[in-house]
Amino acid sequence: MNKPIYLDYNATTPISPEVATVMRPYLEEYFGNPSSSHIYGTETKKAVELARKQIAELLNCFPDEITFTSGGSESNNFAIKGTAYQNRDRGNHIITSTVEHPAVTEVCQFLEKEGFKVTYLPVDEFGRVDPVDVEKAITPATILITVMHANNEVGTIQPVEEIGVIAKKHNIIFHSDAAQSVGKIETDVQKMGVDLLSVAGHKFYAPKGIGALYIKRGVKLQKLIHGADHEQNLRAGTENVLEIAGLGKAAEIAKRYLQKNTAHMKMLRDQLYDNLKKELPDLKLNGHPEFRLPNTFCRGCLPLRKY
Ligand SMILES: Cc1ncc(COP(=O)(O)O)c(C=O)c1O
User: Fold this and answer.
1) What is the C-alpha separation between 189 and 289, in angstroms, rounded?
2) Ligand 1 pocket, 147 CB below 6 A?
3) Is the pTM for the entire model greater than 0.90?
4) What's the CA gap between 236 and 246, in Å, rounded?
5) What value does the mean pLDDT of the chain take?
6) Could you give the angle at the alpha carbon of 70 between the alpha carbons of 129 and 75, nearest 5°?
């Protein structure tokens, strides 16, 4: 049976052959624990640290600002709960948007049950948050702003740089869920002005079940996974060397081809839209006409989720 053509690269991507090649020795040969000080450990430690450097280069940060996680959901949980618990004595208010992935919204809803207050900002017809609304929502109790970089359904890119400036002005920690944008558009944490940024490997040709959280130097998070002192004592658990090596390689490839791939995706996306529009003149586009992921075309009819 012929399979349908797979177009949903926001749901997940296949593992790139280059990534699989880099991973293979850690599946078949190198098995040491990266915490071991002997040769078996140093071999795998080297792979973990190379991957950390590769992710850091893609995000334009220091390698020690990268913590490996099990993916986008864990990164979001760590960023949001970690900030909330760490700053409980400073305030209990969090600002987010109505169009976040459940990996952010559910975390916020969970924290509401724990006594935190959450403001869910509305978006415009294109799915964009207005930075003016962000600033208006700030109270003396605000400890965190969490607004995604790009939406997983309609692809709209949020004005994160402007929100970053506001967060900095008010000395509030700013987190962005970049699960959909990393590898597709520039995700320079310095330009974005974020303190925390979530990465999900399987959205850009790395395996499923691996991700990272950028934690700006000086930002403190309460640990969520307790145990030994792995990952600078931020997340316990022997590192998933095989997948970390794959994530690093995927980041290196993404950086190498970012401009070329962005332009190529955009060309294909717009060609698909133009051809469909010829056949279906009533076709409507969901998402922002300009500030939108280059790979994302969402046909109008799906209402944006409301909370
Ligand atoms: C915007 C966004 N955030 C978070 C996630 C969760 O990532 P993961 O599947 O790696 O836990 C996804 C995955 O669909 C996503 O699209």
Assistant:
1) 24
2) no
3) yes
4) 20
5) 96
6) 30
HEC string for 80-136 = HHHHHHHCCCCCCEEEEECCCCHHHHHHHHHHHHCCCEEEEECCCCCCCCCHHHHHH
**Ligand 1 close to Cβ of residue 231 (< 6 A):** no
Measured CA to CA, the distance from residue 87 to residue 173 in angstroms comes to 10
Structural element, H or E, at residue 266:
helix 241-279
Look-up of token digits 């949903």: 8
Give residue limits of the domains in the chain. 1-219+232-307
Query: What CATH fold (topology level) applies to the domain 1-219+232-307?
Result: Aspartate Aminotransferase; domain 2 (3.40.640)
Nearest to 158 by CA among 167, 168, 170, 149: 149
Ligand 1 centroid from CA 79, angstroms: 14
Whole-number Å distance, alpha carbon 198 to ligand 1 midpoint, is 9
Q: pLDDT band at 307, cuts 50/70/90?
A: very low
- pLDDT band at residue 16, thresholds of 50, 70 and 90? very high
According to DSSP, residue 211 is labeled: E
Cα(1) to centroid of ligand 1, in Å?
30
- CA of 152 relative to ligand 1 center, distance in Å: 8
Q: Is 156 in the pocket of ligand 1 (CB under 6 A)?
A: no
Q: Does residue 155's CB lie within 6 angstroms of at least one atom of ligand 1?
A: no
Q: Quick one: which H or E segment has residue 44?
A: helix 39-59
Helix 72-86 to helix 102-113 angle (10° resolution) is: 30
